[in-house]
Model the fold of this input.
Amino acid sequence: MFDVAIIGAGPAGTAAAFDLLTRGLKVLILDKYEFPRKKACAGGITPKGYHLFKYDISSQVKRKCRTVKINPSNKTPFFIQEKKTLCYMTKREDLDLFSLNMVIEKGADFRIIKKIHSIEEKQSSVEIRTDVQSFKASYLIGADGANSVVRRFVSETRRTQQTRFYQKQFAIEADVMMDRPDQYKMEFDFSKIKKGYYWIFPKDDHVNIGIYTIDPNLNLKTQDLFEYAEDKLSNNKLGAIKGYPICTGGFNYRPDSKRILLVGDAAGMAERLLGEGIYFAVKSGQLAAWSILESNPEAEFVKELYSKSLKLIQTDLNLHHYSSKWFYKFPWISLKSLSFRSINRPFAQGYADGKTIAQILFGSLSSKK
Ligand SMILES: Cc1cc2nc3c(=O)[nH]c(=O)nc-3n(C[C@H](O)[C@H](O)[C@H](O)COP(=O)(O)OP(=O)(O)OC[C@H]3O[C@@H](n4cnc5c(N)ncnc54)[C@H](O)[C@@H]3O)c2cc1C
Done:
């Protein structure tokens, strides 16, 4: 019997595992893939996310970006620059392998499963039946991403108690290998689609490009990526093309089980404006671990503690949600405003200092005389 079973070895799962193992708990991690495995993700980590990792991930950083190019529709691009890093570029398969090895070294039991047959919450444990074997743990953390199976077993069967708390946005991405990725700036290009953007993220030996949209009716096509690469990089040799949903809406997530907690994309913990999810995944994973550690062995308190501890990131997710509505409804006004240094400076400085959107907005409001 394990103290905690975690399904999913992405940033949310390994962040939770790390803290639980640090306090001596017996942790099982299940994933459906052997690592390293490809994960659809551009791997851009904002400073607030980078500094959240409890171990040093500097070896995983492929590039530090201090300049962001913004390309508004039919307008001249503008640049946001800071002395400090605005975004740390990583490669997800490398970062996730690094994190998984870190928790295995700390004592996590990692197993590969192909199918979860059932998840049953009992009086004093949770039982997970898989194609490999059955596992028992005092608690289960569902960290299995946007298409979470744990969520399906736990929350969706309780629709009467809980309205659907998550929404799926979509993104596709690809890598373009090249000798000089540094000739490109990190770029958000809003000129190509209405409710979303194309991106260019330079790494060490390649540039990652992709498309993100909040429009559920827009069918993102790999052909669009080929054309974009040809147009912007004069190179259409795309590798590792992958699309996947990003789960937002987690500001409505309320844990409804005594022994099963959802974290990261499984709980809708990505923001809707730009689709950032790594910070929220790591943070929610750490909060779930903290709730279990603080309430142990009183399972009654786990969901209350987790619920309360999520409040701050849920405020942040909510702020992103409403700003995304406004932003994509009036993109030209939003981008025009953002092009003024007086407006983009507090955001850029705040991000570079590792602040959240709530800290930037409310911090700057409260410091106004
Ligand atoms: C194209 C794209 C680009 C993105 N770019 C960025 C970015 O640059 N920066 C950023 O912050 N966010 C980005 N995101 C969002 C980010 O990838 C996610 O928010 C983040 O990965 C969520 O982490 P997680 O640990 O919750 O889930 P995941 O990273 O999805 O990890 C889930 C894990 O669970 C495993 N799993 C899934 N199902 C099962 C199952 N049934 N049984 C066992 N294991 C299972 C998976 O194999 C995986 O290892 C991007 C997303 C996409 C799709």
